[in-house]
Amino acid sequence: MSSEIKTIPDLFYKAIEKDLPDALAYKQNGKYQPISHREYKDLVEWIALALREKGLKSQERVAIISENRPEWAVADFACAILGLPTVVLYPTLVANQSAFILQHSEVSWAICSDSNQLNKIIESWEQLPDLHTIVVMEGEVPVVPHKNIYTWDQMVAWGRALSSEQNEVRQWATAVKPEDLLTIIYTSGTTGEPKGAMLTHHNLVTNIVDCAEFLEFRKGDRSLSFLPLNHIFERMVGHFTMMHVGVSIYYSEGVAKVPDNLLEVKPTILLAVPRIYEKIFNRTFFMAAQAPPLQRFIFSLAMRIGRWSLPYRYARRPLPFYLKYPHQVASKLVYQKVLSRLGGNLRMAASGGAPLSPKILEFFWSIGLDILEGYGLSETSPVISFNRFGSIAPGSVGKPLYDTWAGRPFVKIAEDGEILCQGPNIMKGYWKNETGSREAISSDGYFHTGDIGYFKDGNLYITDRKKDLIITSGGKNVAPQPIENALKSDKYISQAVILGDAQHFIGALIVPDFEVLERWAKRHKISFVSREDLITNRLVVEKVMRRVHKVNTQFSNYEQVKKIALLGQEMTQESGELTPTMKVKRRVINEKYQKQIDDLYR
């Protein structure tokens, strides 16, 4: 790790020496507007001056609730310089979910993007005794008695008015220590109550600097930022690492606009979750299937040539003569047309947040886009392992970041197969949760990931998850039990099992309360002879789905059940689906109802 960079403020001040004209860029009036490193530095220091002038002290916590935009990045670095740990929240959380995190973390300030986020906080402000000030990045602010609400422009103006003191800001940054708390990132637990992972400057900086050494950045590189910045993958790689290595960061206008923004920005580097790559893969093969016979033949042949090239591409070896020319022709006729939808300039991509299907990884490598897949968690800052150029192993999550740390294995496999990790990236613990911290980090310093895996040829493979936590293909963590419990509270639903791991939406297997459902069916003159007749009736399925929609209102969009499959028999201990304590055996259920699950996600 670079001896010059020990904290995030060190990283910031070293990075701005690159003096890029477009360190950041955002869309305004239909055009991307650049922010230079010099302007970036001024904005960060003005916000830091304003925050300090308003009385914020080191280690007070500040929440950031916003979509990706320059103000997010500015606020993050300003807080880091002042030693203010940031608590970062998904802007998609509903009011009660945001309130829990704001209350639990005892934030005194919140910086939010707009009136939608502001109203969520105001709705629960009386439950937040520590929160006294909110800053809103855009829009008008209401007057709330005995509370402070400022606009972002006001904060910038106050800081600019103190510009005579601006040279002192860099001095304040030197007071920040590597072991100081940088951020608290709340992750969903299997019980649904979020846990706040405490990450220090040392945690993030070692991960940033040491990962960057294995990657190949070039002058003039640019990325499109659209994964949520509060997700540790985007924050560490897309925010901090891009800043560190001098990659220009262009902010997307939102997920719906990503296809358009890719064509406008023409990024050379892309960070995405598997769902993005899945969509491109599926769209490509769908369009090929609709093409005339000759084009279908050319596409099929190009795919075959690409597959033949994979061993050479993975090992960074030149293609043999008999493949080189066919690959060039296939690239011109097929590969470049696929990659043009991503802007046409991509040369390196990363996938994180959830497993990427090996066939999709192979597809992109075969057409000329190098995708690196890795593994990590919020608690590990996040990177534990990743595939390296020259030694790609599809299906694996690559080699550990280090072989050893402090004379011990950086990653090891426990007797029960669980992946354990110790090193500079491991969190301090969970905020205000000593029990959870002791359960997660053993006395020898190893963090228990909850994932089951093994090593082969030095690469780490993940086979299962000890915890019940679902990770969608979009990288969102979903705790199934709160949703299941809410569904079971409905009179029409007896049992529910939430699905969605590595899928693009949440589904559910539901056993109806047949006594209630049969009465409803008779009332509506729906004829049936058996339970099978009942659960396959379209009107019955629609009725249960309407009940599910009512439950969905309690949860964020990514947690909501989008499709269901009805089961005709209760899940029992005798049938092997439940434990003696009546807990769901998810693996058994996944195997037993594989057909229903496959149909649900078809």
Please tell me about this protein's structure.
This protein is an alpha/beta fold. Among the domains are: 8-176 and 215-271, ANL, N-terminal domain (Rossmann fold, 3-Layer(aba) Sandwich), CATH 3.40.50.12780; 470-601, GMP Synthetase, Chain A, domain 3 (2-Layer Sandwich). 40% of the residues lie in helices and 21% in strands. The protein contains 21 helices and 28 strands. Helix 1 packs across helix 9 and helix 12 (293-315) packs across helix 13 (321-340). The longest helix is centred in the middle third of the chain and has 23 residues, at 293-315. The protein is globular and about 85 Å long. The two termini are 47 Å apart. The mean pLDDT is 94.
Beta-sheet strand percentage?
15-25%
What CATH architecture of one domain would you give? Answer: 3-Layer(aba) Sandwich
Structural class by SSE content: alpha/beta
Strand runs, count: 28
Which fold name fills CATH's third level, the topology of one domain?
Answer: Rossmann fold
Helix content: 25-40%
State the fourth-level CATH superfamily of one domain.
ANL, N-terminal domain
For the largest beta-sheet, the strand count, sense and barrel status come to: 9 strands, mixed
> Low-confidence stretches at least 5 residues in length (pLDDT < 50)?
none
User: Can you count the helices?
Assistant: 21
How far apart are the termini? 47 Å
* Spatial strand arrangement across the major sheet: 2-1-11-10-12-13-14-15-16
Mean pLDDT across every amino acid position:
94
Please give the CATH class of one domain: Alpha Beta
- What spatial form do the alpha-carbon principal axes imply? globular
How large, in whole angstroms, is the Cα Rg? 26 Å
